[in-house]
Design a protein that fits this description.
Layout (H helix, E strand, L loop, with lengths): L1 E2 L2 E2 H27 L16 H27 L7 H33 L4
Antiparallel strand pairs: 1-2
Helix pairs in contact: 2-3
């Protein structure tokens, strides 16, 4: 279904991706707490996600996708028989889509920040 130029399946996919990132962040927070990490270093209370941590995890994921795509492309260019052109192209498209999504989220955040700053009190 297309709602105002946005496909509902794309929205559902983005929500699923955000939930998966949140689950990874909760898992990493519980692992860190189990290893004896000093709780005074943790600014956010247990069970709550910090926006900065979620954003960093998301950016790290995009960076990892781009790095793996670049390495796969280099392997293909060097003549590695284990790497096919379709794998390289799919990896590059995934990295490109994740980067474009990150840019759009950044643009929305900047726009929201400007809207808030321009509000009259």
């Amino acid at each position: 279904m297309n709602i105002g130029g946005i496909d509902a399946s794309r929205i559902e996919a983005m929500v699923a991706q955000l939930k998966a990132t949140a689950a990874r962040m909760e898992a990493s927070a519980s692992v860190g707490a189990g290893l004896g990490v000093n709780q005074a270093d943790n600014v956010s209370p247990p069970g709550k996600l910090d926006f900065a941590d979620a954003l960093k995890a998301s950016l790290d994921s995009v960076n990892q996708a781009q790095t793996s795509s670049q390495k796969l492309g280099e392997k293909f260019a060097m003549g590695d028989d284990k790497v096919s052109l379709s794998d390289v192209m799919i990896s590059m498209q995934k990295a490109n889509i994740s980067f474009q999504t990150t840019v759009q989220v950044r643009n929305k955040l900047v726009s929201a920040y400007h809207d808030i700053m321009n509000m009259q009190i």
